[in-house]
Amino acid sequence: xxxxxxxxxxxxxxxxxxxxxxxVGSPYTRYGIGDITRSTLIRNNxxxxxxxxxxxxxxxxxxxxxxxxxxxxxxxxxxxxLNGGARIYSIEDPAFSxxxxxxxxxxxxxxxxxxKWWKAAAGVQPYSDVGxxxxxxxxxxxxxxxxxxxxxxxVNKVFISNAFKPFENFTFGVTASYLFGKIYxxxxxxFDDESGDYINVFEQNIIQVNDFTFDAGLKYRFSIxxxxxxxxxxxxxxxxxLDAKRSSIxxxxxTTSSAIVDTVFQSDEELGIVGLPQTIGIGLGYQHSxxxxxxxxxxxxxxxxxxxxxxxxxxxxxxxxxxxxxxIPGGKRGSMFNYWQGVSYRGGLHYNQxxxxxxxxxxxxxxxxxxxxxxxPMKRSRTSFNLSMELGQRGSLENxxxxxxxxxxxxxxxxxxxxxVKRRID
Length: 426
Known about the structure:
Blueprint: H1 2-19, E1 35-36, H2 42-45, E2 75-91, E3 96-113, E4 118-138, E5 145-167, E6 170-191, E7 200-223, E8 228-237, E9 241-253, E10 260-275, E11 278-288, E12 292-302, E13 317-327, E14 344-353, E15 366-377, E16 384-394, E17 403-418
Antiparallel strand pairs: 1-4, 2-3, 2-17, 3-4, 4-5, 5-6, 6-7, 7-8, 7-9, 8-11, 9-10, 11-12, 12-13, 13-14, 14-15, 15-16, 16-17
């Protein structure tokens, strides 16, 4: 037992290093700390990101910490996943498109029972993602010049969730997360001139985040009869201010390829605050027997007061809607008689009203997508594979904005074993 737990902690450490490597982002990740990863769990993603009321299926659903309490008393669960795909970025004037792709480790989690009424889970996963490269040019005052902006990196999360079941049908939980990572940002003005008559200006920043944040959740299940059940769930995330450090340099060059002529400004490890939003989410789910489930989640994030080293960007309230369903023809034990009767068939929709606003304020940058997937059980085992596919679009071509079309696939391996049973010798 101890050796297995040590092995898992080593795996989490290795995963944290892998997550720290760059991932494909989006031009829209230049705001705040980038794209916030709402869910990395493959089962959830295949159901439109639904998370707050999902029924237990030998997995770990820590998005609502209260769901961790559903883990079987004698079971140890290990879950890791991969996801990735292609993103196509397009603009209308001038007509241009670009495709980027990637594939990376999405999460590494494990969960177990401490007592019959106390369950726990821990793991590592991405928290936010930054990845953009933007350029624009003009000829104002008859001088050709290019404006360059780029960003890379992101923030990762190591979490520990504890969930409790004080009485039948009601659970609550708390998650403590350690956020860490680096974000690299650069910008500048480069003159299209090799004569040296104009001086280029560039700025580079490295932001390092290291701090804790906390979330809480609850869930209540009530039954109409033996086959029909409703579940209400809710989550709350505190609007934390994360401790961060920023190293900056502003310098001049004569050409884009020449060395630094002089340094205008430089600071090392400037202390500051990176703000996170207050998050409130609520979900409602309906389950018929152990064969059919449908649910709806609503999440609101208040970014209006979130500052980034004292600067409040064009941020507003973000909203996320998800609708998802799961169908197992033969119920959870269906695969004992016919394999395809035990397969989980999943689908969902999501709509995301992004939290950042452009200066024009004319066009909202929203995200809409559909998803579907399968849960493939292994025979005579509670272990399963989960597959997901997400298709969607963010942004539009209106007002010469950037439209992003994406197709993302995911796969996870969910190992559920009975660990906490004493052996008996006759």
